């Protein structure tokens, strides 16, 4: 029989031996430091963009103006009156008088008649009538309208218009993405008679939130300058690719973001030195079943309106005053930094992989550009029948959308709508239908849709159209709304699809111009199976 002292000593010895062995195994390893990319935390917030007054310099062309003025003049007003007048005049008048007297003839038998002349001068009073018409008129002051035609020279004037406010859904970065350094213990295997192969570490296959397949990838930027402003856009290419992306959020003009220095193509500034508005995207490639971040790209979508423009002084003879629609310049594709995500687009060489760590470098400052106003006004005066008219007017009309139905053709005879109703959660595809007519000054000109751009709006469709995305006439807009139309102050506040459509006009003289038309499509989202009761029915 064992004594208790021996049992306790044996137990303590065994425990100490096991601790030594475990410590020996635990100490056979090393600490490693690895950099782990932490995805940014992005929230969608509805932001009210307040309305504002916008001043714009507008050239008012010269014209012939008919003016009426009141002229006073003294006029003699005639009034004829018959005045009866006369007087008596004494005059000597010879009055011939006499008589015949019978006398016996000389023979004593017959009778002769003898004229006895009693004529004499007599004093008589004669009435001399001097009655006549006399003008008893007076001088009076009369007023008359005098019509004159004068030439009113052209001038610059300020046109002030109110831009209504709107709700805009923005994706706000609550916590920016960043790299974190983490330490982990890597246990090294102990030497054993039979070597155990090292296990292959599994990559981090976490699926980024909001990732989608890229259909149109970045291919450059455009800067279009006209007489009314400068437009900053993005060129895309829809050829097959192996890219995936996550929308990092849109930022307004002049608002800095944590990704300003992270995008491989940079975020430029406009002519006034402000950061351009646009959207950042994180690019991914799929490697061994995992999404590997490669680079960040910035899609610019902004404009600068000229309050004063460097425009030629118009003349009435030429008719090409500032009232003519500005002639857009051709898009200028800027140089693009080489990006490993766009090797197939041919936009640049294979550059190094960009570290997606966001920085706050706003980029170089640029000198603001100001457009001087006109220094003189037209001095020549054309004939009244000739008025200055622009050489090439823009088209007129509106932009509409038509839903894509089963079996519908691209060139369907559907005029489209400016307001549509859809069901909650139901995906819908839309055609862009421009309802545009040639300018009135050139009715024989032809118009055609060149491209459309989705500017902004709510879209819950995972693979739907994103803000800044452009498309050709035969490409669809892809939308979906998971929430019904909100009610504000007891009324429905429809969603809005803001579109910008580029229309190409081919004039009868062979000139070709492109114009951008902006339009907003109202969307009412209803519950499925909802019933509307009207008039108590």
Keywords:
31 strands; mainly beta; single chain; 47% strand; disordered C terminus; five-stranded mixed sheet; rod-shaped
Structure description:
4% of the residues lie in helices and 47% in strands. It is mostly beta strands. The radius of gyration is 51 Å and the shape is rod-shaped. The model is unreliable at 195-201, 308-389 and 530-537 (pLDDT under 50).
User: Helical region count?
Assistant: 1
Strand neighbour order, sheet with most strands: 23-31-30-25-26
Main beta sheet strand tally, sense and closure: 5 strands, mixed
Briefly note the structural class of the backbone: mainly beta
Radius of gyration based on Cα positions? 51 Å
- Beta strand %: over 45%
If you average the pLDDT, what whole number results? 76
Helix content: under 10%
Number of strands: 31
Q: Runs with pLDDT <50, length 5+? A: 195-201, 308-389, 530-537
What is the CA–CA distance across the termini?
101 Å
Assign an overall shape: rod-shaped
Short characterization:
This protein has about 525 residues and is mainly β.
SSE topology sketch:
Blueprint: H1 4-26, E1 29-38, E2 41-49, E3 52-60, E4 63-77, E5 80-83, E6 86-95, E7 98-104, E8 111-117, E9 120-129, E10 132-135, E11 138-152, E12 155-163, E13 166-175, E14 178-187, E15 212-213, E16 217-225, E17 229-237, E18 243-251, E19 278-287, E20 290-300, E21 302-305, E22 396-403, E23 419-423, E24 428-437, E25 446-456, E26 470-471, E27 477-479, E28 487-488, E29 491-492, E30 495-506, E31 512-526
Parallel strand pairs: 23-31
Antiparallel strand pairs: 1-14, 2-13, 3-12, 4-11, 5-10, 6-9, 7-8, 15-18, 16-17, 17-21, 18-19, 19-20, 22-24, 24-27, 25-26, 25-30, 28-29, 30-31
